[in-house]
Each structure stands twice: as C-alpha cells, then as structure tokens.
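Field: COMPLEX_INPUT
Field: COMPONENT_COUNT = two
Field: RESIDUE_TOTAL = 921
Field: MODE = joint
Values follow.
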Amino acid sequence: MLSSLIRRRWPLPLGAALLIVVVLGGALVASGDQGDDTLVVYNGRSHYGDEAAFLEFQRRTGIDVELRGGTAPELYERLRREGEDTPADLLVTTDLANLWRAEESGLLRDASSEALRAQVPERLHDDQGAWWAISARIRTPVVSTERVEPGAVTGYADLGDPRLKGRTCLRTSNSEYNQSLVADMIAKRGPQATEALLRSWMANDPDIINSDGEMLGAIAGGDCDVGLANHYYLGRTLKDDPDFPVAPAWAEQDGAGAHANVSGVGMVRWSDMEDEALALMEFLTARGAQAEITSRSEFAANPAVPPAQHIRAWADVKIDPIAVEEAGPLLDDAVMLMQEVGWR
Amino acid sequence: MALGVPRRSGADRRGGPPGRLPGAARRGRVGRVPGWTIVGVLVAFVVAGPLVALPASFVSSGEALDQIAASLLPSALANSVLLAVGVGAGTLVLGGGLAVLVSFYDFPGRRWLDWALVLPMAMPAYVLVFVALGQYGSANPLQTSLFGGGLALPDPRGPGGAIVVLSAVLYPYVYVLGRSAFLGQSRQAMEAARSLGRTYGQAVRGVALPLARPALAGGAALAVMEALADFGAVNLLGFETLTSAIYRVWYGAFDQAAALQLATVLVGLALTMVALERLLRGRARYHQALARGDAVTPLRLKGGARWLAPVVPCLLLGAIFAVPVAQLVAWSAETLVEGTLGSDLAGAALNTLLLAVVAAAIAVVTSTVVAYGQRARPSRVGRISARLAAVGYAVPGTVIAVAVYVPLVWLDRRLGDAAGGLFGVDVGLLFTGTILGLVVAYVVRFHALAFFAVEARMGRISPSLDDAARALGADRARVLADVHVPLLWPGVLTAALLVVVEVMKELPATALLRPLGGDTLAITVWEATKDSRFDVAALPALGIVAVSLVPVILLVRLSRRDGWSAAGAQGSTPSGG
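Field: COMPLEX_OUTPUT
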C-alpha cells in the first residue's frame, strides 16, 4: 500500500505529507497543552509522591491540573525563554532563590488573598505576593552516629575542620540547595569569609555526591563521616529505619541558626487562569495539603500544621531563613565562587 | 527539502515513448539542474546547519572565551582527555584480549561466548552506573534484594569508576572489529611464524595482533568517541567532563554562549576521533580480502587452561550484564509488589515510542533521499553534502542540543510573528515548546545512522537495474519508487530500527530539549537516579535494556550468517547516554 502511495513522485508527496503531519501534530501538542481549562504547573518539587496534593485539588474542584516537572533552573530557563507564550500558570520550586530569580526577571505576578495571608506567616511570603512558601527545609550538617562524637560538629565551618580531612562529602555545586546556601552565606558573611569557608571545605577533599539521599547512604556505608543535607531526606530515612546510623548536627545553634530554605509557589505573569491558580495556591497552603507535605518530613509553611510525629523533636531547632532579597542577586556570584574554589 | 526534486517536462514524467534508447535518456540529462544534488545539499544544510552555530559562538560573543567557559574549560578538558585515554586503553585491553581469546583458542563455551560478549552493548552506561550506585550505597533500603547488603563494592564515583564503567559497556566495539580482523587473517602468516620456530602464543602476539592493529585501534577510536559523548554516566559519577560542564554552564549560569563554546571544543575532540577511525578502518579493510577456508583454526586448549579460559569472560559478563539485569528485575518486582512505581510510566513509554517513531520516519526519508541522490547523480557536491550530513553521528547529544536550540529559538520567534501577522493565530513555540525541537535534534544526530544502513543496502542493488528502468523510460523518481524502494525494504527497516533504539536510549539531548511534562523512559531513569530512587528507575531502565537488545541480537545474527566482517561494518553504531 505504501509503495503504491509513493509510486509516482515520492520524496515530494511523502516528504511533504510527513512534514505536514509532524508540524500539525506538533502544533496540536503545543496548542492542546494551552487548552483553556487546564491549569499548568511547572513543578520543581520531586515527582515522587508530591502529586497527591495536586490530584486532590483536581478531584475537589474539577479543575484539570497538569504537572510539568524539571529542576528549578530548568523550569526557570524554560519560563524565561517561553515568555508570553508559556502555557504555565504556576511555578513551584524547591528553593526560594529560583523563585526570586523568576520574579526578578519579571516572570511572576503578584497574587494575594485573605486565605493566603491567613495561612502563610509574614516572613514566608513576598510582601507584594510574588511568591508564597509551601514548606520549609533546613540544610544542615549530618553525621555518622558510629564514627562522629555527638557535639563534634556544630556549624558549617566544621565541614572545613582539618580533623575531618578526607571524611566529608558534599552534594554537587549544581544543586540549587547548595547554590542558595552559598548565596545566603555571601549575603550574611560577606564574600571573603564565604570564600575562605568554601576553600576550607574543599581542602578537606570531600567526596562529591549526586543527591542528598545518596549522601546519607554514603555516610551510613562508611564512605564518609560528615555531610550536608536537607533535613527531610534524613527524616524520611529515619521514618523507615529508626536505627539508621546518621544523625542531624544542627548548625549554628549558639549563633544565627541553621540555614533554612523554602519551597514555594508563584503565579506566572501570563497566566490566563488567575482565579483557578490562586485557588490552587490557597489549597496548597491549607491544612490538608500541608499535612500531606509534613508527612514526608518537611516543615509546613502553615503554622497550624505541626511537623510529622517522627521528627517532632526537630521543631525546636533554631533556624536562619534565607534572606532572599539579598541572596537572590548573589546567586550568579555563588555559582562562580563554587567553581573558583573547585567545587564540582 | 522535498521541493528540490528535479523538475521535468510533463512528457518525461509520464515516461516518454517506450522505444526511447538509453543514450537518448542520458543525453537528455546534460545541462539540467542537478535536482538530486540540490536535495542532498538541502538535507545536509538542515542536518548539519545547526552545527555552524558552534564556532560562530566565538565570533558573536566578542571575547575569545567567555569567562565562565574559561574557568571551567581546563579541568573539564583534562577530565575528558583522561577519560578518553582511559577508555581507549580499557577497551583495547578488554575487547582486544577477548577477541584474541575467542579467535585463536578453543575451549568449552567458546561459540556461546562469541556472541554473548557483544551483549554489554545493550547496556546504556547510565543504567550500569545507577545499578552500581544502588549496590554501593549500603544504606539503600532496597539493597537487600540481591546481595542482602553483604557484598562490599569499591566506590564507583570519580574518574576510575567512569573509566571502568564506560570500558565495560564500550569494549564490544573493539571486540567486534577485532574479531572480524582476526577472521580475515590468513592462516599462512601464522604458519610461517610457527615454522620459523615461534610458539603458537608468540605467533599470535608477533603476527596476528600487529596485523589487526588498525582494526583494534579503529574500534577503540569509536569507543573513545562514545565515551567523550557520554553525559549520564559521568554526571552520576560526579566526574565533570566537557559534556557535564556544558550542562552546568547552560542550567547553572544560564550562559548559552559559553555552552556553545565548550561544545565547540568537545566537537573538535570528537571529530579528531572520527578522522582517526576513518584512517585506521580504511587500512583495516586492506587485510580482509580472504577466502573463508584460509582462516586460522583456533588452538584447542588443554588441561587447566581449558577450563580457566571461559571463566574470565563469564565473570565479566556476569558483572556487566547478568547481575545488573537481575538487580533491575528484583527492583522492578519490588516496586510492582509494593505499588511504589513512579508516576505515569505508561505515559513515558508512549512518549518515548512516539518520539522514536517520528524521528525514525524522518531519518529514513532523509537518508534514502540522500543515498539515492548520490547514486542517481554522483557529483562532488553531492558526496560532500552526504558526508556533511553524516557528521551529526560524531557529535555528542549534549552538543547537538545546544547547537539545535539556538536556531530553533530564532525560528520559533519568526514563525510566531509570521503566523500572528498573516493569519492572526497564536502557534506558540512550535519547535522549542513541543517535541518538534527534540525530533530535529534526533534527526541531526541519527540521520547518519540511517544513512549508513540504507546506503549499504543500496550498494547491493545492481546499477544495471537502474539503467534498465531508465531505458524503459522511467524517470529518477520512478526508479526510486518502483525499483529501489521494494528492494531497499530490509535496509530501510534496519535504519528505522536503529534510529528507534538509539532515540529510546538517548539521554543528554532529551534532557536538555524535552518539552516539559512529556517525560521519556530515559528521563524517568535519569531523574529518579539523580534522586537516588533506584527502585523507581529500575523498571523503565529494564525497558531500555530490553529494547537495546534488539539491534545487538540483529548484529549477532548477522555475524552468524555472514561472519563478523559483515557485522563489523554495521557494528559502529553510536549509543545513547
């Protein structure tokens, strides 16, 4: 059949037909996704299990939600390039710096409501409403309970302690968590002090590891003794295995507190579903969804929702929230600095 | 590109008078616009054109080298070179040694091992890495499935791990080409060496190995090319080569000019390898004109050696293939039982298949048109553009993504403006917002693969068939449709199959260009692995391995029918990660 189709002047008709089909198909895909009644969320939160809250929203309101995943930098780059053509209505990121970056590039719009203000405390949202926190996470040293004395690690500087030479591990400098932490340090400690700190970390010749989860495995497996991770990775692992031989070493408890970042949401400037998008933002910060989030060991943005039972003791940890207005503009400097000191 | 088909008069199209002589047809061609050449040039332009963006980045950015690119380049380049040297040496030792063992010695299981040793080709490096990482992290709660947490493995992270893993999956290039070279060697050379008092082993070392040197080195060059292009494995192992530096510059510093500059350096390295391989393979062919009966008869091993010989290859295959696959199965079973499967796996499989089929269809059309154009109207321009269009094969996926992206963004804007201005429709981002951009990248990368397969098949169609059809009055297009296409089907199918498999495995370009939301199997594996969710990555990884086995099995069957020399010619396919 095909050969009779192309019998005469094939490449011309076949090539043309193919091209048209592909282009039309592509256009369909493009426009289909921009369908008027689907709320498109660029979702930087890890895919595994986080959909529950969004699905629940969809079930309750009848509004279709489409999640499109990627890392925060990927989502930001995508949004920036698509500009007014973007199908996205909401941007959800795992760290505040990337939300700030999106806001600064004019990709977000202010959105606010009575419910949002009631559910999210003052310091966890932008004054104008460009971004709202969904959850808080602490990035702190974690240590082996078998090979590190309790109290031996009390701050970020200890990762550069010569006594720990060859015993530390760090996640790659590609990680947005590390980038935000370094930017926040530059903002609060100044560039020289931060560079000195990072150089001391590098002088300990750390193992560079891909993910926080893998790092916990490396510590438990004896590959290294001290790492730097977000608290909920450890929380999840301890929930499954209370005897897991890694413990948090909360940083700077006698000083500023442990660095805390925020996973948050902002409305995309070109969203044509403002009301639905706002409804989803409210839903994500309301009790139900927040409880769902804390069940996976994060701290809720909504103060009415306590931490999960197995990490309730961690609720009293002194935290030092990221100073996003100052740290945001320093993100590029942070990336450069990490490269300069040789953090892979 | 289809518009470049030669325009002919109406009478000519309909076939002309039946009594026309071949000479008349030939004469009629003189002075016409070389339509097929134009088609070839157009395809080359579309396929290789984006790569022009690479060196242009040095011109447009003004400075010699972007600051970020300059700060990353030295270590990334050094690491890439280290990887190249390590994998070159590793594949030579592994692939060459195994080829010698199987070619010159007979032992139990030799026939079986002869083809089984090609299987690691079906294991994408990033899959092997994540299995290794999953085994290594003893804290991984799922680790218990196979080893019960008892087996201590060395830390796979860093340069050593990257070299070992990539050598383990890439040695078949050397093995296949080495096998085909050894089979092509004459028995007389070995016998002459023996008659001069050399032992069998000395004759192998002193005569057979040097004779096969070009083929072995050619295989190693291919392996090195793959290693340079690798993105997934080095990334997961925390070893920053040029490919991961490109990604970091793009998505860490959002500096596309710098990414293009790094990509240019990488392409330079890769093209050096192509040149090397071409040079060496050209010489290798010289040694292969042999009648079958003249080949060396392998020496039957005796005593302990007889039973020791199969042990090493079996252990190797176990470590590279059997154990990882078993672990993947165990993990998959666990996720299925516990219901902790990653989201929307069926959707990812469907996306993957759709992308693969669309890319394969386009690549098959472009490659058939170019191959036929070269045959119908041989010309220097045609030959050069066919070569040019095949360059994508040597270009790492990361580079293709960066190179394709820049012109497509530009095109999207223009198309958007035009569609808005002319028809008042909002087409959105036609290429970069949809799978189209990704399809373009795949075609750029894999057109060559399809082209080689189609061209090889077309070479077996006698030119006298063309002449006969032409003499009977068929025009060029009709010759292609009625004579070539029916005879070409096996080649076209092979081409399509190769492209489908490569697209399914492809990671870097997919990671960089995918439209958000439509994840593929490779992306699912990648994202889950980055999160250390090895259990979630297992089932899609298993799917990728299963699909990748198809061309390997074809290769094995080909080798059993026609010997390794035919397989060697087909064996040089780029792989995904």
